Amino acid sequence: MGLAVGCGGSPPTRRPLPAAVVGAPAATPPATPPAAPPPACDPWASLRPTNADDGPAITRIRQNGLLVAGIDLNSYLWGSVDPATGEVVGFDIDIVWAIARGILGPNARVRFVTMSPDQRVPRLRARDVDVMVRTMTITCQRKSEVAFSTVYFRSGQQLVVPKGSPVRAFDASLRGRRVCVGAGTTAVDVLAQANLGAIVDLADNHLDCLVRLQEGQTDAILTHGSLAAGLAAQDPMIRVLEPRLDETLYGVAMNPNDTDLVRRVNAILENYRAGGPNSPWMASYRKWLAANLSDPTATPPPARYVD
After folding, report:
1. Are 198 and 174 in contact (CB under 8 A)?
2. Nearest 10 degrees: Cα torsion 23, 24, 30, 36
3. What is the Cα–Cα distance from 161 to 152, expressed in whole angstroms?
4. What does the pLDDT look like over 52-107, one tens digit per residue?
5. Measured in Å, how far apart are the chain's first and last C-alpha atoms?
C-alpha cells in the first residue's frame, strides 16, 4: 500500500511511528534468479542530465498525475512519520519532493510506498514505483539490475552498541556476539567479509535491530552511520562507534529502462546541490542531519557522468 500526499512536512518532534501505522508494504514480487557477477563499474557515475520532458517515463508520470516513490518510514531523520502531524518527513523525503516538483510542478503529488531493503530492486524492476529514495547504496551488482542517479549523500558502515558495552570497535571483541544487520543491506556483506566470528542476527530493518538491542536480544547493530545517527537520536542509552568502516554512496534508484527519468532526476539534483551554503541540499542537511552526524561540515557530493 502507499500513502498519497500533496505537500511537504515539518521536522518530527517525537519518535516515529512504525511503517505499519501508515500501511503495510505490498507483497514481495517473485524472486529473480541471481545475476551474473557484474563488471567493474564507477559507482559515482550516472547519465548526463537533461531537462527534456518528452521521454516515456516522464510522460507516464505526468499522465498518472503523481510520482510514486519507494521509501523507508523506519529511518528517523531520513524517512518517518511525524506523529504530531501525520506527515512523511526527512532528508530522503525532501529529495522525493524536489524530484516530484521538478517533474510535475509546484502542486506535485506523491504516493509514498514503504518496503523493506530486500524489496527495493524487485519492486523497481516490476515498475511498482517510479523512483526509490531509501538510503540505497550504489554498488556494481545493483547497477547491473537498476539505474542510479548521481550520488546525493556519502556515508559508511558503523557499529551501534549500548553504552557500557565491552565492544569497543569492529574487531575481535565481536567474536561470539550477536550483530544485527538488515536483510538485503550491504552491512550483511561487510560483516561476512570481516570474518570476526560474530553471530549474524538478521532483521527486516535497522529499527527492528534497535528494538532487539534495547531488549538485550542482540549485542550490536551494523548499519550506515547516517542511519545510526537517527537511532542514537531516539535512544540516549546507545552510542555509535567510530570510525566508519567504508564509504557508501546513496543514489536515487530507477528502472534501468527509464533513461529519460534518470537524466531528468540528475538535472533536478544539479539544481538541488547548487547555491553553496544556501542550496536546498544544505538547507535539508542542516534541518535533519547536521546536529546528529559526526561530520557537521558535510557538503553535497560532486556529480560525475559517464557520457
Report:
1. yes
2. 90
3. 28
4. 989 999 999 999 999 999 999 989 999 999 999 999 999 999 999 999 999 999 99
5. 37
Q: pTM above the 0.85 mark?
A: no
For the sheet with 147-155, list strands across it.
2-5, 110-114, 67-71, 131-132, 248-254, 147-155
Residues 197 and 209: their CA atoms lie apart, in Å, by: 19
From the list 128, 154, 124, 156, the residue with the least C-alpha distance to 253 is 124
The count of C-alpha atoms lying within 13 angstroms of the C-alpha of 6, restricted to the half-sphere facing its C-beta, is: 2
Alpha carbon distance 22, 31 (integer Å):
25
Longest Cα separation, the chain: 58
Q: Take residue 119 and report the three cell numbers written for it.
A: 524489496
> CA 245, 249, 250, 253 torsion: positive or negative?
negative
- Tell me how far apart the alpha carbons of residues 6 and 62 are, in angstroms, rounded to a whole number: 15
Torsion, Cα of 274, 124, 185, 95 (10° steps): 20
Q: How far apart are CA 263 and CA 56, in angstroms?
A: 12
Which residues lie below 8 Å from residue 17, measured CB to CB, with a gap of 6+? 73, 80, 81, 83
Residues 6+ apart with CB under 8 A from 304: 42, 44, 45, 46, 150, 151
Identity at 69, one-letter amino acid code: A
Nine-digit cell string for 130: 517510479
